[in-house]
Write a structure and sequence with these properties.
Length: 722
């Protein structure tokens, strides 16, 4: 199955980090040095930075330990209000989570880093964290969302000296374009990454970018000599840095490069070497390691199949299938399944196994049918025609002629489609070659222009000598001209000072606004906590210790969220949803069957990207419970709906309670004269936010009626989120 292995390797993303890595020592040596440093007495800020650096170093070979040290750094930095360290610790936690395949959890950590970095307006930190979100989306196969965040991240960095950040984010961006088979764009970003990472003195990331360039030339453009040049450059760096995982990946890729050229024996030697490196250093496979290792096992299984060494082939292919399922990457699972089907097909056609031919054909059909289905569902159609052709041969051997003809039609249909794709790929390769030639021509043109300018300057020197007399005559005129320029400069300086005064005044007013908002948030938290503690007190009064304990655990989780959110002026919709859900669950526990709720967020809303002020919706939910539903004998229901149209987020809180008029008139013994304290604070916060950002947050309260009778209340909140 020539070329089959190539498909598996081309989309390996060799991304190590998002910021400056281990410089001239291996990761393990760096870990030993940092662990020794931790044993020394030091200030909390230095200890927090050391935890962060340890987490970052561990991501290369023990990501779980990296996560543990990141959590230690987060706890210490949060306690000491060390904002930059806190942002960095969330960032490195996300990087380690990516390494073990937990992209969703990584995305939350990266978003936390973005939120914290925004509070100190650190553009580079914001860019690094957004790059992490892009990486998480990329590893989940959501390439368009990945590019959105990655390109935003590159736009954030105005400091052109931030070589490490620009280099690593460019490297990830190139890998996403490579996944989309946009090879010219992939090359452009990889070359940009290589340039910046060399200046950043970041050898591991530099080697990663070189490895990715080799992948494009090998699997994307079929330029094997250029591919080998970049692979060798990466391999030399990994060996110098004693980074065995990188050595294993490059060794595996070189093996595939030889296999693509039909040099199976050389490919096999490199695969065996890569296998020995991984087995010795990475016994417990997970995340991206499971992905890479499943590819290597598949490749070895394919070669052993070609050698008719079926027992060894089955051993490696079974491992490939297990690891492919573990990393949950569908195209990878399809390839491993297809390889197992081909092994059984080859066994069916072997004379010495003729007595088991029917069994092998049946197994082969099952495996290849499964692989073909996965190819279709994921859009990975490169080997779909081959699978259909093989199925047609199997069905023919089984005398199932109807299915054989159908499979053959599928083979012909998709083979023509893939031929057109190959033509597009050839066009992309030609386009890259043209860009390279054009660049070389521009360099030659620049050199010719430089020589011409040097000759011209020599002639100018003679002219200047002859013009000396004219210069002397012009001195008087220049004197008056200089006076005029100085006057203009003085006017410009006065204008600049005036503008600076206006800017300072504006910042002062903004500071007043921030202080007022912080004050209101600090009022909100005690009010909210007081209401929750009342609920716990009721359980304690009834001697229901189990319910009180359960309620208290939810309360502690809710309080942690509220206190975390209160540190930020804006939070994500995902954080607001979690806070609201916890609050409603607590109130539902307290009032049992009297309270039901439903929360819905439209599918088109990006919960991690959409932001709104914290604790904005909860007061209206609380008001609906206490004034609308608790005065109703059989309780009721609250529905919360989030919708987005253009740059406006619309939140609707609807209850089927007794309505505002009856609630105002009723003096319930259960709820004696509660004031809408939270709503008053919320309204004041919104007024300040509207003034500060020059926006208009709209709130409308509607009374609901059915057949002329009060049927509840609806609160509609419209928040600009653009």
């Amino acid at each position: 199955m020539n070329g089959f292995i190539s498909f598996l390797i081309w989309n390996i993303i060799c991304v190590s980090n998002l910021q400056k890595g281990c410089a001239q020592v291996s990761a393990k040596k760096q870990v030993d040095s940092l662990l020794h440093l931790l044993m020394q007495p030091m200030k909390d800020e230095l200890k927090g930075s050391t935890y962060k650096n340890l987490s970052f170093a561990y991501r290369l070979y023990s990501p779980n330990k990296g996560i543990a040290y990141a959590d230690k750094g987060i706890a210490l930095a949060g306690k000491g209000n060390m904002i930059p360290v806190l942002a960095d610790c969330y960032l490195v936690k996300g990087i380690n989570l990516i390494e073990i395949g937990k992209a969703d959890e990584a995305m939350l950590a990266f978003q936390q880093s973005v939120n914290i970095a925004r509070t100190i307006k650190n553009k580079v930190m914001i860019a690094n964290a957004k790059g992490g979100i892009g990486l998480a989306y990329g590893t989940s196969g959501k390439t368009q969302l990945a590019l959105k965040y990655l390109l935003e991240a590159l736009d954030e960095i105005h400091n052109k000296d931030a070589h490490s950040s620009i280099g690593n984010i460019s490297n990830i961006t190139g890998s996403i374009y490579q996944q989309q088979a946009n090879y010219p764009a992939a090359l452009r970003y990889y070359l940009q990454a290589l340039e910046h990472l060399e200046q950043a003195h970041d050898p591991i990331s530099f080697a990663d970018a070189a490895c990715n360039l080799g992948n494009v030339y090998n699997f994307g453009l079929g330029d094997y000599s250029t591919s080998m040049k970049y692979y060798q450059q990466a391999l030399n760096t990994y060996e110098h840095e004693q980074y065995n995982k990188g050595i294993a990946i490059i060794t595996m890729n070189i093996g595939t490069l030889y296999y693509s050229q039909g040099k199976t024996d050389q490919a096999f030697k490199y695969y065996i070497k890569a296998d020995s490196l991984i087995v010795h250093d990475f016994i417990e496979m997970r995340g991206t390691d499971a992905f890479r290792f499943s590819i290597l096992n598949n490749n070895l299984g394919v070669i052993y199949t070609e050698k008719n060494e079926f027992a060894k082939a089955a051993h490696y292919l079974e491992k490939a299938m297990v690891l492919a399922a573990k990393c949950k990457i569908e195209p990878n699972i399809a390839i491993a399944t297809h390889s197992m089907g081909e092994l059984n097909l080859r066994q069916a056609l072997t004379e010495r196994l003729a007595h088991k031919k029917e069994d092998f054909l049946a197994k082969s059909a099952r495996y290849i049918e499964d692989a073909a289905s996965r190819y279709r569902s994921t859009g990975s159609l490169q080997f779909y025609p081959l699978a259909q052709y093989q199925l047609s041969e199997i069905y023919r051997a089984q005398k199932n002629y109807d299915k054989a003809i159908t499979a053959l039609h599928e083979h012909i249909k998709y083979k023509d489609s893939l031929f057109n794709r190959e033509k597009e790929r050839e066009f992309a390769r030609r386009e890259v070659e043209f860009e390279y030639i054009k660049k070389q021509d521009s360099i030659k043109t620049a050199q010719i222009r430089k020589n011409t300018e040097a000759s011209f300057r020599l002639r100018q020197q003679w002219l200047y000598s002859g013009a000396a007399l004219l210069v002397l005559i012009s001195v008087t005129g220049l004197y008056f001209y200089r006076n005029k320029v100085q006057q203009s400069k003085l006017k410009a300086e006065l204008a600049w000072e005036k503008a600076e005064q206006q800017r300072t005044a504006a910042e002062f007013q903004a500071g007043i606004g921030n202080a007022a908002l912080s004050s209101l948030r600090s009022q909100m938290n005690p009010h909210f906590i007081f209401n929750c503690l009342n609920s716990i007190k009721l359980y304690a009064a009834k001697n229901d210790s189990q319910a009180a304990t359960f309620y208290l655990s939810k309360f502690s989780r809710l309080m942690r969220l509220v206190l975390e959110n209160s540190r930020s002026e804006m939070i994500t919709l995902s954080q607001e949803e979690e806070t609201l859900r916890l609050y409603l669950e607590m109130e539902a526990m307290r009032f049992k069957e009297k309270l039901q709720f439903h929360m819905e967020i439209d599918q088109g809303i990006d919960k991690l990207y959409t932001e709104l002020p914290p604790m904005l919706i909860q007061p209206y939910v609380e008001n609906a419970i206490w004034h609308g539903l608790m005065n109703k004998e059989d309780g009721g229901r609250i529905d919360i709906h989030f919708a987005e149209s253009g740059d406006i987020l619309t939140v609707t809180v609807r209850d089927n309670g007794i309505g505002r008029a009856q609630a105002e008139a009723l003096k319930s013994e259960l709820v004696p004269a509660r004031r809408s304290f939270g709503i008053n604070i919320t309204n004041e916060r919104l007024e300040l936010l509207n003034k500060k950002y020059d926006i208009h947050t709209f709130i409308r309260i509607n009374d609901l009626y059915e057949e002329g009778m009060a049927a509840g209340t609806e609160v509609v909140i419209q928040i600009p989120v653009g």
